[in-house]
Amino acid sequence: MDPNLFAGETPGALELERLVQQAQAAFAWRAQVDSYRGRASLEGVDVEVSSTGGVVKVKVADAACSRGGDAVAGLVLDAVHAAQRDLAEQVRRSAVETFGPDSPQTRTVEEAVSTRYQRAAVLRAEPEDEGR
What pTM was computed for the model? Predict the structure, then answer.
């Protein structure tokens, strides 16, 4: 919201109604996003993450274990990151549908999810690099 919105003249009824509608849309959008789940399947590993990106379900098929523990751990982490990317895309799409493709709200959402889940992918790469 523009901090200068109320500088000068008192907002009229139409302006106030527009602000109330925007706030209601934002609250409804947030409630919708809270129900989202990101999902990914990768070589026998199925992962589900909550609306915050936290892992809520992991299923590992016996076949995924054939290359040993380190390989399974890598598959699980890769599947978690893929599920988080799926979640991020759901959130982005819903922001575009709710606020419009060029809105400040959508830009803020896109920046937030990009930063959050990009960081997770970078953290995943660091331990592998140390072992080389």
Answer: 0.76
Copy the structure tokens of residue 124. Answer: 């995943």
Residue closest to 33 by CA, chosen among 120, 100, 97, 121? 97
Amino acid letter at 94? S
User: What pLDDT digit, counting tens, does each position of 13-32 carry?
Assistant: 888 888 888 889 899 999 99
Among candidates 79, 16, 73, 72, which has minimal Cα distance to 49? 79
Domains in the chain, CATH or no CATH each: 13-130 (3.30.1310.10)
In total, the chain counts a number of residues equal to 132
Q: Which helix (H) or strand (E) segment is 101 a member of?
A: none
Beta-bridged to residue 38, according to DSSP, are 49
Hey, what amino acid is at 115? T
Smallest Cα–Cα separation from 97: which of 16, 33, 12, 17?
Answer: 33
Q: Supply φ then ψ for residue 44, to 5 degrees.
A: 90, 5
Run of H or E including 56: strand 55-60
The two structure tokens encoding residue 23: 């706030």
